[in-house]
Write a structure and sequence with these properties.
This protein is an all-alpha fold and 257 residues long. The chain has 2 domains: 89 residues, Homeodomain-like (Arc Repressor Mutant, subunit A), CATH 1.10.10; 162 residues, Tetracycline Repressor, domain 2 (Orthogonal Bundle), CATH 1.10.357.10. It contains 12 helices and 2 strands, in the order E-H-H-H-H-H-H-E-H-H-H-H-H-H. The protein has a two-stranded parallel ribbon. The radius of gyration is 22 Å and the shape is flat.
Length: 257
């Protein structure tokens, strides 16, 4: 699967577009004397709907234009490139998490606040599975992304951790949740695309254990297996819950140190 990468747009243009509702200068170029046919919001919504339904590779500028009933060149007067559009889509999706703003009511305790961050982030990835196909190593610096960063840092800032440790903890939480929900979404997509459950896939390969698996060569696997170590109801959920709880426990240990 080829990844798209956010953060590749012209910084002056994309920052104005990302913050268009706070600064009124970024709603793209308009032909003088004409009433705008579209809005940037409408373009982003149409592109998101297309990616939700058919996947990110299907989301082209021409397809988005067609869904809006305009020519592709008209679309380019609002958003200049697919890279620009992806930045806007990612930030709009992240903004759907709708975290409590500073001063608004929130869960009590840093762990509960972090759990809310994880829960809403996972929900957004499930709602927009194409998000896992976008690398945000160079993120779109928009209000959706920043609201999440502010909320997560604020959840940790009252714990007594030093600023560097708070920042590192926030980055670790964000990375873990993003990686695990991407794995979770991919698992669901593979089942849908193949029309075959993971249990059915493993059942088809049951001969592996009898004819190819050498118990003497892999004694630790055999030992854990024989004692029920692989008896998962849902391996993805179990791995997520185990890793997330241990990560929070590790942060708590730093707080208590």
């Amino acid at each position: 699967m080829a990844l798209e990468h956010s953060g590749g747009s012209d910084p002056d243009r994309i920052l104005a577009l990302l913050w268009r509702h706070e600064r009124k200068t970024g709603d793209a170029k308009r032909p003088l004397g004409r009433k705008p046919i579209l809005t940037v919001d409408a373009v982003v919504a149409a592109a998101t709907a297309l990616a939700d339904a058919e996947g990110l590779p299907a989301m082209s500028m021409s397809r988005v234009a067609k869904s809006l009933g305009v020519g592709t060149m008209t679309l380019y007067t609002y958003i200049e490139s697919k890279a620009e559009l992806i930045d806007l889509m990612v930030d709009a999706a992240l903004g759907e998490r709708d975290f409590p703003a500073p001063g608004e009511p929130r869960p009590r305790g840093w762990r509960a606040q972090v759990e809310l961050f994880a829960e809403r982030t996972r929900a957004v990835y499930r709602r927009h599975p194409w998000l896992r196909q976008v690398s945000t190593i160079r993120p779109p610096l928009g209000p959706g992304l920043l609201a999440g960063s502010e909320y997560l840092i604020s959840a940790l800032s009252g714990t007594g951790l030093a600023p560097r440790k708070s920042s590192a903890a926030a980055n670790a939480i964000n990375a873990f949740v993003g990686a695990m929900v991407s794995y979770e979404v991919e698992s669901e997509q593979v089942e849908r695309a193949s029309g075959k459950s993971h249990d059915a896939w493993w059942a088809e390969r049951s001969v592996f254990w009898d004819e190819y698996f050498d118990q003497a060569r892999y004694p630790s696997i055999v030992d854990v297996w024989s004692r029920g170590g692989y008896d998962y109801e849902d391996v993805v959920v179990d791995v997520y819950e185990f890793g997330f709880r241990r990560l929070l426990d590790g942060i708590q240990a730093m707080i208590d140190d």
